[in-house]
Amino acid sequence: MRHVQGRARRAGAALAAVLTWAGLLAGAAGCTSETTGGAGLGGLGKPRAPEEVIRVFPADGSRGVKPEAKLRVGVPSGRLESVKVVKSQDAQETPVPGQISADGLRWEPDDRHLALAARYTVDVVALDAHGRRSARHTTFTTYVPEERFIGYVSPENRSTVGTGMIVSLEFNREIENRAAVERAVHVTARPAVEIRPHWFGKGRLDFRPERYWKPGTQVTVSLKLRDVEGAPGVYGLQYKTFSFTVGRHQVSTVDAAEHTMEVRRDGDLLATVPITAGAPKTTTYNGKMVVTEMLEVTRMNGATVGFTDYDGKGEYDIPDVPHAMRLTESGTFLHGNYWAPHAFGKVNVSHGCVGLRDVKGGGSDTPAGWFFDRSLIGDVVEVVRSKDKKVAPDNGLGGWNMGWKEWKAGSAVK
Questions:
Q1: What counts of helices (H) and strands (E) characterise the chain?
Q2: CB–CB of 164/128 below 8 Å?
Q3: Could you tell me what percent of the chain has a pLDDT over 90?
Q4: Sign of torsion over alpha carbons 398, 402, 408, 412
Q5: What is 273-314 written as a DSSP string?
Q6: How many C-beta atoms surround the C-beta of residue 180 within 10 A?
Q7: Which of 45, 279, 368, 377 could bridge to 358 as Cys pair (CB 3.0-4.6 Å)?
Q8: Mean of pLDDT over the chain
């Protein structure tokens, strides 16, 4: 019996052609001969072909099977003895778990969703109503989509960030089925805290708690986007998990009217630093902004953010701005400034950035160098008393400027 079963598994799709009826009968009923009309078989007659005894869907040899198709194995009578399904995807083979029903007539996978761009192999052994054993081997392949989407995630894996960090996913394609994508992204924290999502348009999904993270929190982000249909014919590609750690709590408050910045860590005042903010015609946004990028030195050209002269050239072009920390996507930075030495603590002269005194090339013992060395991506910088509007919640990681009720209303899962 074991010999016949083993041959059935190795024979693959050609099992029915290779395995003789006499062999099947001998293995199933213990008979040594086959005669017409059921003589010597107690009137059981010839056993049926495996494809008549064992039904498998999708059909053997199917190609381009869509993910919503249901994988099913069943018998009209008798019972299933064993079902083995293997998924081959990205050069890896993975068993597909499933369950045989209590009556033994059907098998269904635990996950009803088929993977894309995969090859499935199904091996089944069953007994018919007369106790005769049949084996069947089938294969099928699933749909290979032409278009995929991915999400670019911040912060980076294994990073240590400030307590104002917001988990943000920027998608490379517009997401039409936002609820399905949202369900495939899980953000959890230890110690536990309520974390809610908010969509900005069709291309960005952010997650945050109601208040800043507690220092020491471990945050895990799980992306189960692979094969999720984000838009008609466009499927996700990622299946990964990453995590980050929340460091100490630091919030710096820029008072544009007083030309100062108070730096507080874990509630204690570290320093009050003289600054220069946006000039009367190019004011700095009010509101809470989060450091998203830190650059030892960078070039800043007014033309990249819309500040041009009559010739279309940038109103400024500084090739070596030191200690630059990005606060908004629209171009607001907190950075070192060596070209306006008499402005700090006295007058606002910038094009919207917050400037701290520095030297050409950047100095570690200057206010800008001191602050840069004590900052993390995810730290909060809040600007008050500037003659400008509040920064938009989707300009950088400005989501802290939105109330919790409004933030929760931005979920696509109702």
A1: 7, 28
A2: no
A3: 79
A4: negative
A5: EEEE-B-TTSPPPBEEEE--EEEEEEEEEGGGGT-B-TTS-B
A6: 16
A7: 368
A8: 88
